[in-house]
Amino acid sequence: MSETLNADELLKLSLQIKQWGEELGFNAVGITDTDLSEAESRLQQWLASDCHGEMDYMARHGSKRSRPAELEPGTVRVISVRMDYLPEPMQDLQQLLEDPQKAFISRYALGRDYHKLLRNRLKKLQQKIQHSIPDSNNRLYVDSAPVLEKPLAEKAGLGWIGKHTNLINKRSGSWFFLGEIYTSIPLPIDQPAEDHCGRCQACLEICPTRAITAPYQLDARRCISYLTIELKGAIPEPFRAAMGNRIYGCDDCQQVCPWNRFAQVTGEQDFLARHHLDTSGLISLFDWDEATYLQKTEGSAIRRIGYQRWQRNLAVALGNAPTSDAVAEALLRRLEQASPMVKEHILWALDRQRNQPATA
């Protein structure tokens, strides 16, 4: 049936899909074809430079990541959706980041795991499309398969890939999640978004570890998000001081982006902070035992790093905190029972505490 739809019927269906998406809570829906040849070339160069670090999954699956029809045979279009998640005004983020005794967690991870919410909404959109065109093939993805979501979203008109390699929308900034539906329906495609970064270098200049090595080029091995989330072993010493109080991810490049002045606080309650993770002190989080960690991170994206990396990250942040007896005592309380990896970071933190000038 999808093959017999004329141009007017396909246009009407595409408009209907966008309306359904809006009704389901998506902030934008765009449609593109499956040609990702330019993105494929950039990905191959990035992998060849080993900029993906330990993220071996980025190199798996051959060309399926950049050729949608190889991942899902019959795919001719990709429906890309956006859902905004900013949980609080941006000035609140900056105040927290500037308090070295508080823990900074990337804002996408403060609430419920976005994968579940997006997948549930996207499933409803998929079902509506399937019901409308029963013989069509429609498969949804939310970080669940090798998909180049940012290049697809850029081609679908949802935004452009900025110099920090995140997607930016000129009306909404960059605080949003993406999801996709691969479809066999030859829907009309949207115009790709244009780049509006101009001469701005703010994200390159703000990056604490200089992970943005050039405009549109990110060395993940230097990125605090990679170091605190993806890296399984010890954090390289040269990057520890630059991590500051960031214990899960880093939002600096988004916070400084001029386009985020247009970002609005989300209306999705599930994206709002849980368990006071938006304002918690480093010592109180470091004092969690593993059972508390598992209980407090249930249903959260934070759960994926596990308790050992959680403690590793907090130990580094405590090493960067102002010198105090309370910090030293918190580190010493965990030292004896710590795993070898965590112990290495606690000892580094204690050394930092001893050698930093005392605060008034």
UniProtKB/TrEMBL annotation:
GO terms for cellular component: cytoplasm. [4Fe-4S] cluster 2 binds at C207, C223, C250, C253. The active site is at D143. Its EC number is 1.17.99.6. TRNA binds at K232. One of its GO terms (biological process) is tRNA queuosine(34) biosynthetic process. Its cofactor is [4Fe-4S] cluster; cob(II)alamin. It comes from the Bacteria. Cob(II)alamin binds at R65, D143, L167, L178, S225, C250, D251. Catalyzes the conversion of epoxyqueuosine (oQ) to queuosine (Q), which is a hypermodified base found in the wobble positions of tRNA(Asp), tRNA(Asn), tRNA(His) and tRNA(Tyr). This is Epoxyqueuosine reductase. It comes from Candidatus Thiodiazotropha endoloripes. The lineage of its organism: Bacteria, Pseudomonadati, Pseudomonadota, Gammaproteobacteria, Chromatiales.
